[in-house]
Amino acid sequence: MLAVVTPMVTGTSCRCLPDNSPCSLGLSKCEYAVNSQRPVNLDLRTIKLPNTAISSILHRITGVILFVGIAVLLYGLDKSLASEQGFAEVKECLTSPLAKFVVWGLLSGLMYHLTAGIRHLIMDLDIGVTLEGGKLGANLVFIISAILIVLMGVWIW
Amino acid sequence: MVTNVTNFSRSGLYDWMAQRVTAVVLAAYSLFLLGYILANPGMGYAEWQGLFANSWMRIFSLMSLVALSAHAWIGLWSVTTDYLTPMTLGNWATGVRFLVQALCGIIMFVLFVWGVQILWGI
């Protein structure tokens, strides 16, 4: 079985929370996560997800959506590059409400995934890797990607 | 160190690095394409075809396709490894996870070859 690396596993104390606050996972589980040599596979279904976790899971969901979307985009690229007629057909297709919705959906996924990805890179530079910084970063990702998604919608329609 | 036989580079550290390097390539490519389309409203076939006929654009596209293949594999591997576990699926988890990961790999390979055909078919 493989392990989920959680931020709290590596330290010698429960770094995810201020020292005086109660551990949201229950003390024993938290202590286990801290003291165990192996990372713990936490059962997400039993945990109330904070904003940071929601931003992380959305990053994964949009990643999977984009993977599925590659086939759609490659099909469009193939057709549009193959001939003048194919290009015209793709252009014509993109005027239909369904095609617009699909493209908007894929662009929305891309905008979220890109924004959350940039946040990852910023955090890799050791910026915002505190509890407060993590929460702020997650909320910024929600706000910035929401603006970009709306802008994409405005562009498409 | 936790090692695993199905991840991309047999090392979490290399996977971590590869995921970031490929992400930067993909970000550059998608922003470039999006910007190009935005900057050229009402673009015709000649211009679109001409863009992809450039050698630098073929190199950029192929680089992105390679980056995408690695990025998608590492990402899908992480997600399937985290969620398709005995905790969620019971005794069949290892078999199901292996099949799903194999399917992801096959699909990504097919998409890669298709992409190469598109780029070199112009």
Number of helices of chain B: 5
Tally the beta strands of chain B: 0
CATH superfamily membership of the largest domain in chain A: Fumarate reductase/succinate dehydrogenase, transmembrane subunit
* Count of spatially separate domains of chain B: 1
Describe, in plain words, how this protein is organized in 3D.
- Chain A is mostly helical.
- The model of chain A is unreliable at 1-23 (pLDDT under 50).
- In chain A, helix 2 (51-82) runs antiparallel to helix 3 (84-93) and helix 4 (97-124) runs antiparallel to helix 5.
- Chain A folds into two domains: 1-47, no CATH class; 49-156, Up-down Bundle (3 helical TM bundles of succinate and fumarate reductases), CATH 1.20.1300.
- Chain A contains five helices and no strands.
- Chain B has 122 residues and is mainly alpha-helical.
- The mean pLDDT of chain B is 92.
- The longest helix of chain B has 29 residues, at 55-83.
- Chain B has helices at residues 12-39, 45-53, 55-83, 86-89, 93-121.
- In chain B, 20% of the residues are buried.
- Chain B has one domain (12-121): 3 helical TM bundles of succinate and fumarate reductases.
- Chain B contains five helices and no strands.
- In chain B, helix 1 packs across helix 3 (55-83) and helix 3 runs antiparallel to helix 5.
- The interface between A and B is medium-sized, with 33 and 34 residues.
